[in-house]
Amino acid sequence: MNQQQWVGIDVCQKTLDVYIRPQGELFQVPNNPEGIAQLVEKLQAVEPELIVLEATGGLERTVACELSQARLAVSVINPRQARDFAKATGQLAKTDAIDAQVLAHFAEAIRPHLTPMSDESAHQLKELVQRRRQISQMITAEKNRLRGKSGSVASDIQSHIEWLEKHLAEIEAQISSAIALNREWQKKMELLTSVPGVGQVVATTLIASLPELGQFSHKSLSHLVGVAPLNRDSGKFRGKRQIWGGRANIRCVLYMATLVAVRFNPTIKAFYERLKAKGKLKKVALTACMHKLLILLNAMVRKGQTWQPLAN
């Protein structure tokens, strides 16, 4: 019987530090096409159970995609998870080699979900959606700066706002074109936007940044996004349930969708009113509605069904 092996890869701009557990092999390859090809060939011979990398602002994308295309199991995790795990196991020092060892240990102990690797078009859509969010935030910031300003300063800010709005429209057009060229995305758009409260911005963000929608269980997806209420109990102490972690950008658009849904979506509105009638605080009730909305969207995408007004 072959021994199971687990791999951790610490990604830097120029190098990849790789650790194979439990045999304890540590090596380094250049973070370039030649080095990645060498790494893929090496790991195909090893046949590890799982390879874990940290999300490093996109630097990990190329190597993760190449490993995945070679039919190797890959999981890209939040750096916070790896750091918390290192502290929990008493590993306080931090170097590239140590980080690779920690990731390999994390792979064996935690066994995180595999990360679906998007193709180039999906990656470009995700970048466009991220850029749209950045530009929208800049427009909001500039409008806030405009308050109370006059003269040349006000004129300069106003000109910048107009330029940003024009650029935002161009990004929106590129996103619409990308969706129109992909039949699967078109179908998802139709399903998602059939839900009262879910508009174009929410739907495209979910398509681009939550490819797991419709693929994961309700529980796993809720934890992934960070809308699952987590217990804070110890002994006789019973703390308030709180949401924590997850994908902040998804929670942000879900929150905006929920604000609309509690007014115009009959299912979410009824649920919200029941919670308020039970004495739940507005913020608590809205969080619960975000959770319910995500569950509904997940079920719809999985079944390929449009919105049903009487859905529970």
Description:
With 312 residues, this protein is an alpha/beta fold. The chain contains 12 helices and 7 strands. Strands 3-2-1-4-5 form a 5-stranded mixed sheet. Strands 6-7 form a two-stranded antiparallel ribbon.
Task: Write the topology of this structure.
Blueprint: E1 6-11, E2 15-21, E3 25-30, H1 33-46, E4 50-54, H2 61-69, E5 74-77, H3 79-88, H4 96-110, H5 120-146, H6 151-180, H7 183-193, H8 200-209, H9 218-225, E6 233-234, E7 237-238, H10 248-264, H11 266-277, H12 282-303
Parallel strand pairs: 1-4, 4-5
Antiparallel strand pairs: 1-2, 2-3, 6-7
Helix pairs in contact: 5-6, 5-8, 7-8, 8-10, 10-11, 10-12, 11-12
- Shape, per Cα inertia axes: globular
Which whole number gives the mean pLDDT?
A: 89
Distance between the termini: 49 Å
Radius of gyration: 23 Å
Low-confidence stretches: none
Percentage beta strand: 5-15%
The total of beta strands comes to: 7
Count up the helices.
12
Strand sequence of the main sheet, in spatial order?
A: 3-2-1-4-5
Structural class: alpha/beta
Main β-sheet, in a few words? 5 strands, mixed
Order of helices and strands: EEEHEHEHHHHHHHEEHHH
Provide the helix percentage. 55-70%
Structure described in brief:
The chain is α/β, with parallel strands linked by helices and 312 residues long.
For this entry, give a set of tags.
alpha/beta, 312 residues, single chain, 5-stranded mixed β-sheet
